[in-house]
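Forum: Protein Structure Q&A
Topic: Joint prediction for protein chains with partners

I've read a bunch of threads here and the consensus seems to be that you should model interacting components together rather than docking separate models afterwards. I'd like to see that in practice. Below is the full input, 750 residues plus whatever partners are listed. Could one of the regulars post the assembled result?
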Amino acid sequence: MSRFSFTIAATDGKARTGQIDTPRGEIRTPAFMPVGTAATVKAMLPENVRATGADILLGNTYHLMLRPGAERVANLGGLHKFMNWDRPILTDSGGFQVMSLADLRKMSEEGVRFKSHIDGSEHFLSPERSMEIQKLLGSDIVMCFDECPALPADRPAIEKSMELSMRWAQRSRDAFGDRPGHALFGIQQGGLEQDLRARSAEALTAIGFDGYAVGGLAVGEGQDAMFGCLDYAPDQLPADKPRYLMGVGKPDDIVGAVQRGIDMFDCVLPSRSGRTGQAQTRFGQVNIRNARHADDPRPLDPECTCPACSNYSRAYLHHVNKAQEIIASMLLTWHNLHYYQELMQGLRDAISAGNLDDFVAAFHARRADGDMERL
Amino acid sequence: MSRFSFTIAATDGKARTGQIDTPRGEIRTPAFMPVGTAATVKAMLPENVRATGADILLGNTYHLMLRPGAERVANLGGLHKFMNWDRPILTDSGGFQVMSLADLRKMSEEGVRFKSHIDGSEHFLSPERSMEIQKLLGSDIVMCFDECPALPADRPAIEKSMELSMRWAQRSRDAFGDRPGHALFGIQQGGLEQDLRARSAEALTAIGFDGYAVGGLAVGEGQDAMFGCLDYAPDQLPADKPRYLMGVGKPDDIVGAVQRGIDMFDCVLPSRSGRTGQAQTRFGQVNIRNARHADDPRPLDPECTCPACSNYSRAYLHHVNKAQEIIASMLLTWHNLHYYQELMQGLRDAISAGNLDDFVAAFHARRADGDMERL
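Posted by a regular:
Agreed with the consensus. Here's the joint model:
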């Protein structure tokens, strides 16, 4: 079985493009990973997710451990087979979602005890159990179990949390062991404190991982603060390993983060917003529920080649959204994922060609132009 | 533009197989028409509905007139373009659904005044307005505006209602006019009264239609009573025109009706039941929500070639249904529509081969066998 490896083919400023090779296929970077929380990218068939250009999906350990259960998925042949996706899967550790979704949690040095938001049943997550679950699922890229404090938080709280996460990172590394072809990523914490981020990066690098995530951002701090942190945080991490910004983001978040040296992203935005009638386009976000679309025979974006734009009018998308038809979620999710992958391809091409600044300027100019009516 | 025509290629007992030719393509009979109520077959893309083998869809005049509105659809180029389905569409008249869905209706000789179940707005339907709406939608097969009384009803009520429907049939015919390539179907009424059915058939035949529906069945009378009526009702209608049994039905309803000379069917069952976890299979209905499927690695039906059966386990279908994921509706609807079309193809082939009795015996034997666990 081939090993997990990362190759940088070109750089432009701090931005990099290249690919991650895994036994289940390559991941072109910068990469956007659609979120398949409960073993499905909501409202999409996996072959259609692939058709948008996705090389890798994200699965959520927290959701999958509760339903259908990691042991069950393992008995059924693993998550890839279960959900009919044979390319790479990254799983998060469950840490973030335990904090945001579960009830009555109790945290200790050992781990987190919590009650399922689905049925109230009691569960326990620790670095060791998270590694075990991610192995049972068959994840290709496993994330360390960490604590992600909500921002704003005071410096002592962030420091204490970061130090706990670094101890959990070592335990994750020890529990993961040696699994050729599978990768373990460390997660940098430290909030918006540059020196804490540096200490976290040093601790992770000393342990040694196949890739490094910038964690603890996109939790309410705003884009300016996030970019401020990304001006230094990626540089603190090893340059020869993939850098993954967890839970990000809006298209302009992604563009700014790529400029700052990030290689991987995941976010529910394209799928979630598609289910509420929000289309992500080259011209910004379009609310298809707006009455001005009701009689509009034009496609959402005449230059987009996705099925929603190729085969339907804005009037149709408006109608099925208003009527709460499932096809509205199907078509807008497909469009949004298509747009995100097209954006990533544009970023990769621009970095390869050494004209990322021009690409980014055009990206912002189109969005400033904004008004879809003027197309 | 070619005309609408019906050709019977073979018969077996009372059963017939052949095709309806329309400018938008052929309809192989016996035909099952998936229901696309609000300009979408719920949870399906139209190209995938076509891939199941559907030659024609049904659209609901009542729903479409309320939202998005018939004039709007016409301005957008008609229903085919609006919903991305370029093959034939049959629209019902709105009469049945005004009775079952709308509020505060007032019926007169002229027509029906009612309030929308969506927003309470007031509307009026008559034979003339129904013809106008169906023309605005661009329907290929237009249904007469009729009244469909709920059963059981007493004979005087059924007789009075049938006579009204026959006067409305004449007004529908007059309003429809001459539209080459488009068909108008009459609807036989008369409840379970053989002589009233005969009088209705005579009245319709005297007016002259391109096809004839058996209306007023599948409204709670039960299969025995329905089959009892179908033992004579189709025979009362012209043999050289398509016969359409409206709103039917379960697979065994369809098989029994084909044996009695019916050529066309529509029903929400395969799509609606798919959205509630009910799979229609060669072995009967399977409730994928049942806990016995939770760990089952086998496909729903190993002989079925639909995506749900080709790519997923019963355990996966169970999981996504329990988790209320949209993909559960997508996959089970696809399976159910695939099964229905496979059943229709089986019926057509059996009639062509002259072995319908054998086909029907095997159909019932498999369902009596029943237990999917024994596969």
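Residues 87 and 364 of chain B are 33 Å apart (CA to CA).
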